[in-house]
Each structure stands twice: as C-alpha cells, then as structure tokens.
Amino acid sequence: MIKLTLNVVMAEHNISSQELAQLVGITPANLSILKTGKAKAIRFSTLEKICQALDCQPGDILQYVEE
Length: 67
What we know:
Blueprint: E1 2-4, H1 6-12, H2 17-24, H3 28-36, H4 44-54, H5 58-61, E2 62-64
Antiparallel strand pairs: 1-2
Helix pairs in contact: 2-3
C-alpha cells in the first residue's frame, strides 16, 4: 500500500493544513482525506503542487508499506 506522509513534511515546513490546501488549490476536506490515508488515488497535478508548496520530492511524501 502507498501512504502519504504529509503530516511529517508539513510539520518540518511549519505549514498548516489550511495554508497547504490554499497553496495547492484543493479544499481542506480533500487535504484531510489525503492526510488520513482515505484517498484511493492522487492526481499527478495535485502531487506536483504539493511538492512545489512543500519544496520536496514525491518520494518525500510517498511511502510504500507492506500490508
């Protein structure tokens, strides 16, 4: 399973959920779905915007976890 580790990277950059959602152009509710692991997919364009906002690489926020 692929997980997003947004909370860790957001804490490292001292950015709130509200601020990140605004920078990425998604609703806080959709960001919450990503953060809690309830999302089944993420668009590359959204992933790119998250990486731009957090100044990171996709591998910094994506993690493979065996089920």
